[in-house]
Amino acid sequence: MYRTTFDPRVHGFAFVNSWRFEPLERERLRELFADYLKWGTVFGAATFGLAGALWVPLGLLALRKTVEGELAEGYGLCGGMASRPKPIRLPST
Predict the structure, then answer these.
(1) Residues 6-16: what's their mean pLDDT?
(2) pTM
(3) What angle do CA 76, 74, 35 make, to 5 degrees?
(4) Residue 19 — φ and ψ, nearest 5°?
């Protein structure tokens, strides 16, 4: 395995690679899901009749609960941003 002196802590970009959802961002996600539920009912009814008007929104609601439950307080540490400076440090071949 080829080794290099590259160290992302030393040679990486000089900014923090993480972020947090603000309360307004979380609220916007909730609003988007509310819109999806509304349009899911319309689509479900138009496509599958009364059963679709019930089942499509229920599926979207379950998805909403899953997404909200999985939203972490913070995100980041993108591997691409951590390793992007690496080619600059590799010797030419």
Answers:
(1) 72
(2) 0.46
(3) 105
(4) -155, 165
Length of the chain: 93
**How confident is residue 58, by pLDDT bands cut at 50, 70 and 90?**
confident
Q: Quick check: is 3 in a domain? A: no
| Strand runs labelled E in the chain | 18-20, 74-76
**What phi and psi values does residue 9 have, to the nearest 5 degrees?**
-70, -30
> Are residues 85 and 12 in contact, defined by beta-carbon separation less than 8 angstroms?
yes
In a domain, 20, yes or no: no
Residue 12 falls inside a structural domain: no
Number of structural domains the chain divides into? 1
**Three-class secondary structure of residue 73 per DSSP:** coil
